[in-house]
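Lecture 7 notes: from sequence to structure.
We start with the chain below.
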Amino acid sequence: MAKSSADFAESRCEQVAALPWRVELDGKLRVLLVTSRTNGKWMLPKGWPMRGKSDPQSALIEAQEEAGIEGEVSRLPIGSYRYTKFFDDGSTTPSQAMIYPVRVTAVNATWDEMNDRERRWVRPRKAARLVFEPDLSRFLIDLADERIALFLNSA
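Predicted structure tokens for the same chain:
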């Protein structure tokens, strides 16, 4: 059943996001962005926590479905960002996504949502310019390579 803002009348909507990353041959960090299915804007793979799965597992599954990657997800979030969630019925609600880093080990040629989304590897500062949500942009600007390594070690 589709959710609407009425489902979150008393609280903030909480989602999980994946931050797929890899270090390229030039030694520089790249992050993977995907486009939204509804408006084509660049974002991190994200979705609802899944029943029977931990939040990190849910974030990894979203990245597999939306971006077509395989990887190792951190047990701990690296940060979060706030945004306005738009629902199909036109309603909105304040929302927050917890961000789980995913060290990408494979990029699939085909994946579940490949006909609905684009994906692009970019440096974090370029990602900050591309994404729609201002709070996510601030997070990406502040992102340092060492933070990713620190959280991967806790995976």
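Points to note: The domain at 11-152 is CATH 3.90.79.10 (Nucleoside Triphosphate Pyrophosphohydrolase). The mean pLDDT is 87.
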